[in-house]
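User: My advisor asked me to double-check a structure prediction for Anti-sigma factor RsiW before group meeting. I don't want to rely on an old file, so could you generate it fresh from this sequence?
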Amino acid sequence: MEHLNPDELNAFIDGELSSSEQDGIQLHLSTCHACTLRVLSATRLKAATVRAGQRFAPPPEALARLTTRLHSHQTQTAQTQPKTFATISHFRPAVWTALAAAILLAVSLLGWRQLHPTNNLAAELLDQHLATLSSGAAPQVISTDRHTVKPWFQGRLPFSFNLPDSLPPDTILKGADLTYLNGQPAALLLFTIHRHEVSIFLTQRSTSPTLTTLPNTRAGFNLQTATTSDLRIVAVSDINPADLDLLVAALVHIQKSA
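Assistant: Sure, here is a fresh prediction for Anti-sigma factor RsiW from the sequence you gave:
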């Protein structure tokens, strides 16, 4: 059986296939590492989307209080306005309810983001790393040569960075991609350490969020962070923290010494 196409993958995850089709794909996944990673990545993305949709639902009692206040304000306004205006307003309760919901949703969203910025960022980092594991997500630059990878970013990023001449033992540069992290442009460098996949995100320090409060682990993956005078660096991988630290340290050192 060939690799799963996007329609088959989505139908499998959503449970839209017949029993025989479902069994066939499960048999394929038991022997195909690439498709298994694609299913894992897509499943995590769907789950993250569902969680995001549930995070910002305002409590019913809060919406009811705000709606009551707006209706009360509407009544007071109607008593001081000409009768024609009051009559028109009387037939538009849905407008006030929608406005109340929109205001409360905006306040809830803003408050949640202020309280949980690192949770959002950690999830975004991990989702992007998992996406790189998919065979269908080839990077825009595939090269082990730093002289090929670094120049590709010129004109694509509002900042520059350096790559070390030599890497830690059994560490290989695979390629790179242009991505966005927390809404800001970022360089995504792809490495392997002892055949473990590693994603390195480089962002501009003046515009990127604080990374020092990120968790050290998430869903079995290690997150290592560092900063230089101009850059913020975050690494994501399932490799042990000691080996991941060596790569991050090499990147920090070349930024400072260049």
